[in-house]
Design goal:
Length: 156
């Protein structure tokens, strides 16, 4: 019994130390996951209102728009801690170091993303495909603006 307790204590300590040393990587993983989820939902909307409007499904588009808004309002800023421009989450981070030199620009881009994501959720609820398409374009512009400013281009 003492050995089991000692092993459990050592494993807990080792796990705690390992996690503490990788806080940046945990932030990167969380950030990458959140944006991948938002991107997956954006692709669902694009498919139904831009690429194949004949396949439009109001409930699916509403769910996807709400998911994007939830990500936008989830406090993503906390996942951009110092040092998260270096390191590995699920893959190597592509955050440019300049992100930390331009906090006002980063905040404006995040605010724009939040506003347009929330508006997309509202517009999707009304079900007008043309309005959804227009608002989806505005949301996409906020993504592009942030990528242009603060994301290292994919080497592919």
């Amino acid at each position: 019994m003492k050995n089991n307790l000692l092993i459990a204590l050592v494993l807990t300590l080792v796990s705690s130390v390992a996690l503490a040393g990788k806080a940046e990587d945990a932030q990167i993983k969380s950030r990458q996951s959140a944006y991948a989820f938002a991107g997956w939902n954006a692709a669902k909307i694009k498919d139904q209102v831009v690429d194949h409007p004949e396949a439009y499904n109001k409930d699916q588009v509403i769910a996807a728009a709400n998911a994007i808004a939830a990500v936008a309002n989830s406090g993503l800023g906390a996942l951009f801690g110092p040092g998260t421009d270096q390191g590995t989450g699920w893959k190597q981070t592509r955050l440019k170091p300049e992100f930390f030199d331009k906090p006002d620009e980063a905040k404006k881009l995040a605010t724009d993303f939040n506003r347009e994501a929330n508006e997309l959720a509202k517009v999707a609820a009304n079900g007008d495909v043309n309005n959804i398409k227009s608002q989806f374009g505005k949301l996409s512009e906020t993504c592009k603006a942030c990528h242009d400013s603060f994301r290292i281009k994919d080497p592919r």
